[in-house]
Each structure stands twice: as C-alpha cells, then as structure tokens.
C-alpha cells in the first residue's frame, strides 16, 4: 500500500468474554498494513446499543477508509479480493 489505509474496528471485550472474531479482525487488518482505530464495546448494554444503531446482529464491525466492510467474514472476503 503506497499510503497507509485506515480501518475503524468496533469489537466486544466484556469482563468475562472477548469476542474471538474481533481479535481475528484486528490481526487481519494489522497483517495487511492497516492503521487500526480499535473501538472497544465493554458492556453488554454498549454492545446492544451499537448493534441497534448500526442495524447489525453481531460484532465486530469494520470500516475501511470510511466504507462499511462488515464483520470478520466480510473482511476476509474483502482482503482476499484486494
């Protein structure tokens, strides 16, 4: 990548559970050279409100250069096609 691309990641990290898909998404983004803005959803209420606001059923949620990519599987497809 000539210019460092930016990714915004929203992922769930609760006191008793860290979403493995969020961890995977972050690692994938970093591996592919993205500067990651890592936004942690640290309570069930915060996670539920985020999901409702973005009309999604799960986290993580990834945006690259302002474009909604989706969850971890969507990110994997996006990166495979680059």
Write the layout of secondary structure elements.
Elements: E1 6-14, E2 17-18, H1 20-31, E3 35-41, H2 44-54, E4 61-64, E5 67-70, H3 72-80
Parallel strand pairs: 1-3
Antiparallel strand pairs: 1-2, 1-4, 4-5
Can you describe what's shown?
It is a single chain. The protein is α+β, with helices and mostly antiparallel strands and about 80 residues long. The protein has a single domain, classed as Glutaredoxin. The chain contains three helices and five strands, in the order E-E-H-E-H-E-E-H. It has helices spanning about 20-30, 45-55, 70-80; strands at about 5-15, 15-20, 35-40, 60-65, 65-70. Strands 1, 2, 3, 4 and 5 form a five-stranded mixed β-sheet that branches. The chain is globular, with a radius of gyration of 12 Å. The N and C termini lie close together (about 10 Å).
How many discrete structural domains? 1
Give the SSE string: EEHEHEEH
- As a percent range, the share of strand residues is 25-35%
| Discrete helix count | 3
According to CATH, the homologous superfamily is Glutaredoxin
Cα distance, first to last residue?
11 Å
The biggest beta sheet, please? 5 strands, mixed
CATH domain class: Alpha Beta
Number of strands: 5
Shape: globular
Could you list the spans in which at least 5 consecutive residues all have pLDDT below 50? none
Rounded to an integer in angstroms, the radius of gyration calculated over CA atoms is 12 Å
Mean pLDDT across all residues, rounded? 93
Query: What percent of residues adopt helix (DSSP H or I)?
Result: 25-40%
